[in-house]
UniProtKB/TrEMBL annotation:
Official protein name in the record: Methylmalonyl-CoA mutase
Domain of life (superkingdom): Bacteria
Keyword set includes Isomerase: yes
Residues in coiled coil: none
Record's keyword annotation contains Isomerase: yes
All residue ranges annotated as the Methylmalonyl-CoA mutase alpha/beta chain catalytic domain in the record: 140-420
Entry's EC annotation: 5.4.99.2
MF-aspect GO terms: cobalamin binding; methylmalonyl-CoA mutase activity
Keywords: Isomerase
EC top class named in words: isomerase
Origin species: Nonlabens tegetincola
Length: 454
């Protein structure tokens, strides 16, 4: 094979650029071929080994090195949720993610006869007694508890700053193994309009609040000895290559931040498609969007992926939507062989460059947040909320002017599939007037303005 191209001389990056300039016939190279992203990154027309800077991205945290298919289940009723979990696991899912709304859920019923698979538990409350019972019943499940996400999304702590942090610290260090880890949920930022750089920087600042709290209580060494990891819960954006690079950058910035505390941090990344770019208009296109989004998460190195049904925001949970969403992942894994190569993006000059730039720009923004007092202070100051609103407004303007395209919404609309008179679920942002400590961060779909005018 090495002799196949011997008669061809290697072409340098300089020679490629010279050839491009000739073919442009006087047109400006930068204006014609350089794409400028919202992240402040310039996308070049070609990438070459001459300019490449190899980076070492940590591998997946899964034992197999592959990724797992999971399914999100709302556990409002323990018996119903248990049956849904069994059904999902019998039909291809390799794990389940339980969203538990309150501490009255019967743990024994919820986990009855479930096989030994990866189970994530996302409690929407903070109750150490409940978590103790959960640990006794299911010591190998993974609890995702994020008190700062509670503040950012709801506007209030579970109880208050001090008791929330005290209970969080007790939960983190009281239980062995991966049952209790530091969890950072960044899906809220992405779905409120954050650019990838903002998402990564807010993740770093969010995580740093927890690590700084451990350091203040002289618990860093105890955390290190406990061999914990960082759970990252994320939403997958629509930019295919940017999101591949995003997930690789997540691991780089996690490792970088850990070193500042003398820790070798390992990240376990759970991902699901964002609602940000989903629409009621030509809603079947949502299936195409979620497919490419899941592909980018796999190639970016996510550990667990659960898909979003195409009608999740306007229909009640149903057999068809749930089955199709799960089967999309099964096709990627079993028929498209997306589980055979664990590091497919390694060595791709474009992806490597994107990853490096995203990590560097996120680190710069993170430092700015820290200089201003840290992430929680930025939430109370309203800085994060303001920046997200600005980013959201910019994306909406781009959609309105056609600079940003949503197929079926502002481009190639389906004349045969308009808006319905009624939907099973209210598809727009709901406002709930109440007294809050901070202005909550509100996720919002981009297509809403177009849908309301349809």
């Amino acid at each position: 094979m090495s002799k196949l191209f011997e008669e061809f001389s290697p072409v340098t990056a300089k020679e490629w650029k010279q050839k491009i300039h000739v073919d442009l016939k006087g047109a400006d190279y930068n204006e014609t071929l350089i794409t400028h992203t919202a992240e402040g990154i310039d996308i070049k027309p070609f990438y070459h080994s001459d300019d490449a800077t190899p980076i070492q991205v940590p591998t997946r945290a899964t034992q197999t090195g592959s990724w797992y298919i999971s399914q999100s289940i709302y556990a409002g009723d323990a018996a119903v949720a248990n049956e849904k979990a069994k059904d999902a696991l019998s039909r291809g899912a390799e794990g389940v993610l339980f969203i538990i709304p309150n501490n009255s859920i019967d743990i024994e019923v919820l986990f009855k006869d479930l096989p030994n698979v990866g189970i994530q538990v996302h409690p929407q409350f903070l109750d150490l007694g409940f978590l103790e019972k959960l640990q006794q019943a299911q010591p190998k499940c993974y609890v995702h508890l994020d008190i700062i996400n509670q503040l950012a999304s709801d506007g209030n702590w579970f109880e208050n700053l001090k008791p929330d942090h005290e209970k969080w610290l007790a939960f983190l260090l009281q239980h062995p193994g991966y049952f209790s880890n530091i969890t950072v949920n960044t899906s809220l930022y992405q779905q409120a309009g954050a650019s990838v750089v903002q998402e990564l920087a807010y993740y770093m600042a969010h995580l740093n609040e927890y690590l700084n709290h451990l350091e203040q209580y002289d618990m860093i060494s105890a955390f290190a000895k406990a061999e914990k990891r960082i759970n990252i819960d994320t939403a997958i954006g629509s930019d295919y290559f940017m999101n591949i690079a995003k997930y690789r950058a997540y691991r780089l910035v996690t490792k970088s931040l850990g070193k500042a505390y003398g820790l070798e941090l390992e990240a376990y990344i759970t991902a699901s498609p964002s609602l940000r770019n989903k629409s009621l208009l030509d809603y079947n296109v949502n299936m195409l969007r979620t497919t490419t989004e899941c592909m980018s998460a796999v190639l970016g190195g996510c550990d667990t992926i659960y898909n979003l049904p195409y009608d999740a925001f306007f229909n009640k949970e149903n057999e068809f939507g749930t089955r199709i969403a799960r089967n999309q992942l099964l096709v990627l894994k079993d028929e498209a062989y997306f589980d055979k190569i664990h590091n497919a993006a390694d060595g791709a000059y474009f992806i490597e460059d994107l990853t490096k730039q995203l990590a560097e720009k996120a680190n710069d923004l993170f430092k700015e947040i820290e200089k201003a007092g840290g992430f929680v202070q930025a939430l109370f100051d309203g800085t994060v909320q303001r920046k997200l609103k600005e980013s959201d407004a910019k994306e909406r303007e781009e959609l309105k002017t056609g600079q940003r395209v949503l197929v079926g919404v502002n481009k190639y609309p389906n004349q045969d599939q308009g808006m319905q008179e009624e939907y099973e679920l209210y598809p727009y942002v709901k406002t709930k007037p109440r007294k809050t400590l901070i202005a909550p961060i509100v996720p919002k779909r981009l297509a809403e303005d177009f849908e309301k005018q349809a």
